[in-house]
Fold each of these.
Amino acid sequence: MLWNCRMAWGVSCVDTTLNRSFYKLGKVIGRNPGYFIIVPVLLTIIFITGYQQLKYQIDPEYLFSPQNGAGKHERAIVEEFFRVNYTSSFSVERITRAGRFGRVIITTKDGDRNLIRREVFEELRVLDSLIHNATAMYDGESYRYNDICARSLGECFENDILNLDEMMDDIESGELKLHFPIMVNYKTFDTHVFPVFFGGTELTADRTIASVPAMQMVYFVAVDTPRQLEKGGIWEDEFLSVVGHAENSGMFKHIRIARFASRTLDHELERNTRTVVPYFSSTFLLMGSFSVITCMMGDVVRSKPWLGFLGNLSAIMATLAAFGFCMYLGIEFIGLNLAAPFLMIGIGIDDTFVMLAAWRRTSVKLSVPERMGITMSDAAVSITITSLTDIISFWIGIMSPFPSVQIFCKYSGMAVCFIFVWHITFFAACMAISGYCEQKNLHSIFGYKVKPVSVAIKANIKKQSDT
């Protein structure tokens, strides 16, 4: 019983404190609305400059895997003892990270399911040459695959399977059989490990290769330093562009090419995320129209259509400012954050309707500062508690082990804080100005002076009685 009394007293104390504080704030805004419009606008402009500090993150492994997961710990142990050296002693077997690479999967286009043919290998040589000659630019420096390739004993990692063309006459005549899975090239002395390059291989009874419907070639890039990693990423983009152009232009008659790079998944996820961008304008227009329409009344003086629009504008300004502030703090930005503005608009509209409802409950006979004080006092608990619960929810999300969730919650939580502040300052000041227009009997949309409702009704009744 004593505990319940203390809880009730605590809640009552908080409620009273909020009401008194917001009442005083409302009266100050009612007397000086201009300051509370100018300052938030200036702060929004200042915080928006934080977008120049944008640190865009698209790595899916970093974003969607637990920070302290067992897999990362075990990989660290492997890398400690079996570190990959891309510069001098590269070994495919030691790879534990995607790194930077380009991969092509080749299948037949002409109906013959077997790739082991001279005309196919001639086109493969052309394709290999195109990839080696793909030129990328970094800091004004042009470079090709041979300049950045992963090396072993000073030589680039090569797709030695192409050297089968040295024996193609013997293979096509049937004099030479390709023994699966390993075979030595008697002309180049390469050891061909067929399962590395061939896919879906069909074998005869004596374990020789009958046909090869698919083949892959991989081009690994050195990534021992951050600079190499960045150069490799730029080369990957050029690789995808060159191979894609060759495939789409119909350059090859016998082979069909599928291309893949280490960042292909990153770009695909990012492309899917950005599909929400075209909906921004239509969503904001729809929400703005809804807010304007629902804020209108039959009384052209007391109607508040502009406040419906300004409520949306306040939420947009606050979200932009919050995002810029987070970027100034050095918080990484992800594509998932593009979904946050839709949530923030909903929160802002909710606060808008709560404050407008509180305003309409006040007496029109009171002064604007007094009405603003009562309005803010009435709406204080509602908008404070809803904003606080949203903020706490996002704070809890920051404790998630997934960086993508952490980043999204940081941006969204900060946006909710800014929306709360912008609504009790910028939007409240707009309400005060609207209140002065209402006090002067100005039209709510066009701003010209109209007759009070009571006078208009009496004039209409008198006109009807005269007729």
Amino acid sequence: MQYLEKKPLIINKIPFSSRLMLGTGKYKNLREAQNSINISKASIVTVAIRRAQNAKVLGKSNLIDGLNWKKLWLLPNTAGCETAEEAIRIASLGREMAKRIGQNDNNFVKLEVIPDPQYLLPDPIGTLKAAEYLIKKNFTVLPYISPDPILAKQLEEIGCATVMPLGSPIGSGQGIQNITNLEIIINNAKIPVIIDAGIGTASEASQAMELGASAVLLNTAIAKSDKPADMAQAMKLSVISGRISYLAGRMEKRSKAQPSSPKEGILRKS
């Protein structure tokens, strides 16, 4: 039986049936990417605006032309941008990209401002600056950030639709690090918190959801696995499992063991 959650993920008043969001890079080929995305049942797919633009210029095929955008929601991202100004310019191209595939009301942008080429950590000041501008231009901004509770709250207060703190550095597969800060962000937020980057396997996606995250976004974990289609299936199920577990509420931790059977009625030697 398929699990159907009563409360879907809602971003800027738009409901989405899946809490798993996927990136589109690093796959061996277009068919493998298409197959993995279809199996995952993801509702939102993020595409690097620069990569898509370059593919068009070079005459190469890309996922923009290869996916069913009647069933998927495009989340353009500003990957590769090192400054706020650069991200703002690329975001505008992303909005045009959404219109070209028929999503005329899609103003979403995954905002990435990353000047650090080694660890790919986002620039908090540049991100905040770009977010303020884009929100004034009626973009639905989903900012990628380090797990900084103060910055997350500032971005929420200026009107971001979500915050997207990293679990660990992009593509590292280190899993969920700095759990304390992530929990603070989740507990303080009145907007969806999407754990983005660093997830390497299904158990880590489930862990993110059990923390109370609204969704997870991942790419490398599927694209670089030995069997991407199987990993896509595993990620789909783990996100559902983690969400159900969070809603169910975990048992209280205790310092001592407790018997699972009642002590009353135990037969004792006379």
